[in-house]
Design a protein that fits this description.
single chain; alpha/beta; Rossmann fold; 8-stranded mixed β-sheet; two-stranded antiparallel sheet; 12 helices; 10 strands
Amino acid sequence: MKSHFISGGGGIQLHLVETGPLQGRPILFVHGFSQCWLAWLRQLNSDLASTYRLIALDLRGHGLSEKPRGAYGDSRLWADDLQAVIQHLRLEHPVLCGWSYGPLAILDYLRHHGEDEIGGVNFVGGVTKLGSEAAVSVLTPEFLGLVPGFFSSQTEDSTRSLDTLLTLCHSEKLSSVDRYRMLGYNLSVPPYVREALFSRVLDNDDLLPRLRKPVLVTHGSADAVVKADVIDQQMSRIGSVQIRMMATGHACFWDDAPAYNKYLRQFVEAVAH
């Protein structure tokens, strides 16, 4: 697995990893709130890597990417981050896969840079808006109850909230090794970054109907973070959309990686180059 640092929007240093054959069809994975590239281990270490060029990005403020203050409110910066990855690695029509918060960054990219350079999109347990009553309505009360702890600078408070978030994200019981790895990279995201992410106000209702490239929506039927209502309230606005409900929690790509990887492979194979 190769590791890269590249210059993203506004000159911020972004970290990413890649595996698989350079000539393979590229798939770019974009993690969720307070996560990092390690969230995609069950894809990066799967047989997908024998066929596809797999890239996993640490979003600004996360993982090994830079974590400046005041660099999270501008949609264009998030868009330019993904554009920098596509251009720096010379990715030809990648499929963009975003989990949870990740679709917001992908939609930032699509708003500012369009669809011409991508092949398709996979929204995984995702949302398309923030900062409104409509946005909050698709989030579970259990998740919303954790939000104050995400912003706390008190280690015990943030640890408690993030540890509970891990429980909400997964329908399977995590091994101690996986749980503490996940908790570690969640805690590496500073509280000011977490607060900045939730302070954004976004609404992509105007953009979704204009999307023409294929979109796969993958959602867990037991998702305890984002309600299945998001399908009707947000994702149904997309014209060319496929819906895959899985018997999993919020992290369907982890809870049932073999099934998710199969669906992703089928989608990528059907997407025109």
